[in-house]
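WARN retry 2 of 3 for item q-0093 after timeout on previous attempt; input resubmitted unchanged.
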Amino acid sequence: MDIKTLERYASQTRRDIVRMVAEVSSGHPGGSLGCADFFTVLYHRIMKHDPENFTMDGKNEDLFFLSNGHISPVWYSTLARSNYFPVKELATFRKINSRLQGHPSVDHQLPGIRAASGSLGQGLSMAIGAAETKKLNGDDRFVYVLMGDGELQEGQIWEAALYAAAKKVDNLIATVDYNGRQIDGDVDDVLSLGNLKKKWQAFGWEVLEVDGHSMEDLIDIYEKAQFLSGNGMPTVVLMKTEMGQGVDYMMGTHKWHGNAPNLDQLNDALSQLEETLGDY
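OK item q-0093 returned
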């Protein structure tokens, strides 16, 4: 996809997000909106994947794991808009017996989801296991994982980071959604992470940085990350984003981490987001 088309997809994804959480008065719009550009670039430009023939093992395909599973709305929208399942199914988000649970689940065999997530801190470990499996099977494709910056306060992340570097898991491309906010406030106020770039470098990782709202920059950085593979080091991308990106009253605050807009707020949000592919 060209840049204009990617931007159209990202705009529609943002509309999907606010509608999904508003309709059930439940969900996490802030981080979802902030990661819409990342998911759009990853699924529509960077990853090699086959929505029409989804398998759990994903042989000869790139794999993606969502560690911060509470931002499931952006993933569900992206999967639906990538033809993993019908777009109209987005209307079932968080409803009883829906395949689109609040946190990604494998119970209902939703295409595109290979692991349950949302218990923070676990996704990097799962991605490492998948990446090592690909190496053992002679599969030269990549494994991607997204983590939240507040999630880096979990100790398991750093155990996994040590392991990946020590075992030279160099087909792994991790991303940190570096928006500086978590459910209780600013990350620096809750538990400062210090200098993340130097920290990941000290753990033996290749570190890249990117503006998470520039389609051009996202494409360039993930192509560079792929180029760096095979050098004996895992790669992490520190992706600067704004929580609530695209909806003015959700930006600049942590308050929309896990709050759903009411009807008036939804209409305000939709007035700021262009309908480009048709609402579900």
